[in-house]
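hi! just following up on the protien thing from before. the input was this:
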Amino acid sequence: MRRLIALALLPLLAACDVQTTSTSASSEPLPKVTRTGSPQTLADYRAVVRRVEPIAERACRANTRGLNCDFDIRIDNNPRMGANAYQTYDRSGRPILAFTPALLRQMKNRDEVAFALSHEAAHHIAGHIQQTQTTATAGAILGNVLGTAVGLDPTGVEVATNIGGTVGARRFSKQFELEADALGARITEAAGYDAMRGVLYFMDAADPGDRFLGTHPPNADRIRIVRRTVGG
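and the predicted 3d structure came back as:
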């Protein structure tokens, strides 16, 4: 049983695409702003890191106790990775915030880079990976128990364990994304960038919609939560 649950949780140990209750307000109109700017250069990225990193680390220390707040911010040059930013940990437990070059090429200005970086830092500050692992473990155990109780063969029990782990992992995933957007917006603004301008990246990004057990909320919800947070 331990082996099955460990296998079900393997995807959670690598990255932080983590996010029940949506805080959207669909009656609110979206901001009538267009994205402007030029593709990001390495110099732009480094300039954003220099300003956002100390603010994010200060927010981490102010809002947590005993948490490693020494962010390792890096570019992930894995050619198999598409446009993405994520939060994870190295073997010592140091938090990693990573961008792929493909994502930086899609961003139109430094505000968008700052918001994405602050969003990933917020995932760490809020402990979203750990919360996701906890709910995934509970889901995997439940799936294992139910699969065994109804008399499934070992393969069936493994499938039930994996399904339970996936459902558990995604239970609060959309909520976590919106929480990270709100805290990330405050970090972005504290660093001197415009969070509303930064979140407009989602005006052109692929919209996941409001899918059952989806990992991310609709883009419109993300824009609204940032506007409500910073009063834009």
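The first strand starts at residue 72 and ends at 75.
Residues 2-15+30-230 form one domain.
cheers
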